[in-house]
Design brief:
Oligomer: heterodimer
Strand content of chain A: 25-35%
Distance between the termini of chain A: 41 Å
Number of helices of chain B: 2
Order of helices and strands of chain A: HHHHHHHHHHHEEEEEEEEEE
Largest sheet of chain B: 10 strands, antiparallel, barrel
Order of helices and strands of chain B: HHEEEEEEEEEE
Largest interface: A-B, 73 and 72 residues
Largest sheet of chain A: 10 strands, antiparallel, barrel
Radius of gyration of chain A: 26 Å
């Protein structure tokens, strides 16, 4: 999968393959770990094009391997100026200051990296250079921000708006229990998954997730090989989803799906549909989720 | 959830189609079966991740479990949407990233495009392809565009090879 988010290191690795043109010889030297040769080649690449952030970054990495810490830092800072792998480049500048035992500067740059979205906690925790400055309170604060970046769904309020639905449930319709349902979090809280297990009929699953790009919750419901998609927000004490489902012959059906937390830890799910553009609505499902008694 | 409509769907479909549990046996669903398996994923010859691709929900969903060595994780649902006649992928990461693409099997690959929503960043156009590479590999190639689709740059080029047993 596209691993835009996976890790800065992976992003670095993946970018290697795409280099073409004048920098490709330098790249080959870099891949052969000929740091001296790579440093020379990337130096001439940045002289040709001072805005080549990638080559600045690679120059920094080559010089770092040659033990020329201060020169490498200057190159990394140029990579930052030219917006190449910005959060990660900031973090390696921080490492460079840690190498020099400058805890204040290391913390400052790591905090900048955190502010730019850096989430490479493993890098901060395992690179030996950082162990020199670990005790610094500013460093610890920056590390905390990075940890939050790496697990935003556990620490950011919006991602937790649907927590009330997590649990093991008996689901009642008109006072009759008709299904079991298990609602669980996955991926460090980034996905809320329903596992719908009716006593009669067909099972289903849904994914529910907060999309920070649209600031909306989304649900994809899959049962009987049919997918339904909803989008919405939490407001007025409930999660309000809406959807527009394509029907055969080009018509569309409007959907409203509402989850309301009730007293005693219960949850009300109401699903309504309209085939006249929202003028009249019929109830497709009206159920109460009741927490299962722990046996 | 929603037994009434599910029942309606069943009745509607009963006359014309195979049982719902058999999503996986319908011809369209076979198009993406080559991706199911346990994989080591290589970039530039280096294994960067493990990935477990499974058929779930009676063959109606292909579930991806992406486990990179560098930390972070992701999952995706891949399903054939009968209403649109397209494959869809919904990808979510443990860092809150979301990607939604759709497309079809064409010229020897599943080809999808859509939008990536990196956590805290700007949405970007995204397209990717999954190509079976006989005898037993799969190539995944992803590109992104920051200018509305005028120019594209590669962001991921990985080769799925059958996972080596670790016993």
């Amino acid at each position: 999968m596209f691993r835009f988010i996976g890790s800065a290191f992976l992003a670095c690795a993946t970018l290697v393959a795409q280099t073409t043109g004048p920098a490709s010889e330098a790249e080959a030297l870099f891949q052969k770990q000929d740091w001296q040769g790579a440093a020379r080649a990337f130096q001439s690449a940045v002289e040709q094009d001072p805005h080549d952030g990638r080559s600045w970054f690679r120059l920094g990495s080559s010089l770092y391997r040659l033990g020329r810490n201060e020169d490498s830092r200057k190159a990394y800072e140029k990579a930052v100026e030219n917006n190449f792998q910005t959060p990660y480049a900031m973090a390696v500048v921080a490492r460079s200051y840690a190498h020099d035992n400058d805890a204040a500067k290391a913390a400052e740059w790591l905090d900048r990296a955190a502010g730019a979205g850096f989430m490479g906690l493993a890098f901060v925790d395992t690179d030996p250079e950082f162990s020199k400055v670990k005790a610094d309170p500013g460093f610890a604060r920056a590390r905390g921000r990075i940890e939050k970046n790496a697990h935003p769904c556990e620490s950011t309020a919006e991602y937790r708006q649907f927590d009330f639905w997590i649990g093991e449930w008996d689901v009642q319709v008109s006072g009759q229990t008709i299904a079991n349902s298990r609602i669980e979090k996955m991926l460090d809280g980034c996905v809320v998954q329903e596992n719908w297990m009716p006593f009669g009929g067909i099972e289903g699953k849904s994914w529910n997730f907060y999309n920070s790009g649209t600031k909306k919750w989304e649900q994809v419901w899959m049962s009987a090989g049919s997918a339904l998609k909803f989008e919405g927000t939490f407001h007025d004490g409930a999660l309000h989803y809406e959807g527009l489902t394509p029907l055969p012959a080009g018509a569309k059906r409007h959907e409203k799906l509402t989850f309301t937390p009730l007293p005693q830890g219960r949850v009300h799910q109401l699903w309504e549909q309209s085939t006249d553009g929202g003028k009249t609505w019929t109830t497709a499902f009206d159920g109460i989720y009741i927490p299962k008694k722990k046996s | 959830m929603r037994p009434i409509v599910i029942l309606a769907l069943c009745l509607a479909r009963a006359a014309t189609a195979a049982p719902d549990k058999n999503c996986g046996s319908r011809p369209e669903y076979k198009q993406f079966q080559f991706w199911i398996g346990e994989w080591d994923v290589q970039v530039d010859g280096q294994v960067v991740a493990k990935s477990s691709i499974q058929s779930i929900a009676g063959g109606c969903i292909i579930l991806e479990n992406w486990m990179p060595y560098g930390g972070g994780a992701g999952k995706s649902w891949n399903f054939y949407n009968r209403a649109t006649g397209k494959w869809e992928q919904v990808w979510v990461t443990s860092a809150g990233g979301v990607l939604k693409v759709s497309g079809v099997w064409k010229d020897g690959a599943i080809r999808e495009e859509g939008l990536a929503y990196p956590p805290g960043g700007k949405p970007a156009m995204h397209r990717h392809s999954f190509t079976p590479m006989p005898p037993d590999r799969v190539r995944q190639f992803c590109e992104e565009s920051d200018d509305g689709g005028k120019t594209w740059h590669a962001v991921f080029d990985g080769l799925y090879a059958p996972a080596k047993r670790t016993s």
